[in-house]
Design goal:
alpha+beta, 9 helices, 264 residues, 10 strands, 3-stranded antiparallel sheet, 3 domains
């Protein structure tokens, strides 16, 4: 069975054919109406045959359109689980867009896409979308690369520092040599401690925000403290490592965060 792109294309063409047949039926009925208005008996006598032909054509095209989607409900779910990601990557590549698969998610920096087979939809940057035609999504991802995602690095930096300060103590304990290095996994657990938050803001979302802050800035809080990130912390649980993927497909790791006074 062909993939979704071909299936959507087949449905589109079948619907267009039905639309054209319906337009011809409407045009034929309109011609009969005009013949009656003008009193054209010859045209009225030709009308029923032409109307019948147009109606039969429209009926056939409507039936084709109604039967044009080739997937059953179970086949849709199975394909979304097993074949859709590869097709979306292939279609994206044709458009010059790199789409990387990590931990069951597709990443086209800065966008994160999750496939939701049971819902016949995707989650794109934490927004549910039921429009899953591969070419349509690839175009959307391309547009997303060139516009703001709504992420505000300055606000994220302040939120990151607020949690860091709660863990380490007041800012007066932070010197030019820096404060303590706090595992970012610990900060993430605190940020998402309330029920339901983790479902809408998972570790990959947090990793993306860390990557965008680290790559774009700012790096100085309103209190004049500079942030720095470490990619390792000696002995640590691999689960404590967060990451995101840069435009070249390289995973950028984040382990800990530290704030320090700016050296004059």
């Amino acid at each position: 069975m062909a993939g979704f792109e071909q299936a959507f294309d087949d449905v589109e063409r079948a619907a267009e054919a039905a639309q054209k047949a319906a337009a011809r039926l409407a045009s034929t009925a309109n011609a009969l109406k005009k013949a009656a208005q003008a009193g054209n008996v010859a045209a009225i006598r030709r009308g029923p045959d032409r109307l019948g032909e147009a109606m039969e054509e429209a009926r056939q095209e409507v039936e084709r359109a109604a039967a044009s989607w080739p997937f059953s409900e179970s086949e849709e779910a199975d394909y979304l689980k097993d074949g859709y990601a590869a097709e979306l990557q292939a279609v994206s590549a044709e458009k010059g867009l790199s789409l990387y698969e990590r931990d069951g998610q597709l990443i086209s920096p800065p966008s994160i896409l999750r496939i939701l087979p049971d819902r016949r939809s995707v989650m794109l940057d934490r927004k549910s979308r039921s429009t899953i035609r591969p070419s349509w999504l690839a175009e959307l991802l391309l547009r997303n690369k060139g516009k703001s995602s709504g992420f505000t690095p300055a606000q994220f930096l302040e939120a990151l520092y607020a949690v860091y300060a709660d863990i380490t103590g007041p800012s007066t304990s932070i010197s030019k040599q820096g404060g303590s290095v706090v595992p970012l996994a610990r900060i993430y657990r605190l940020i998402t401690a309330l029920p339901g938050i983790g479902r809408n803001y998972d570790r990959m979302d947090f990793g993306r925000d860390l990557y965008m802050l680290d790559s774009q800035g700012p790096r100085i809080t309103r209190k004049g403290l500079e942030v720095s990130f470490s990619s390792s912390g000696g002995k640590y649980n691999p689960r404590d490592l967060l990451y995101f993927v840069n435009p070249d497909g390289v995973s950028i790791n984040f382990y800990g965060v530290e704030f320090r006074e700016i050296v004059q």
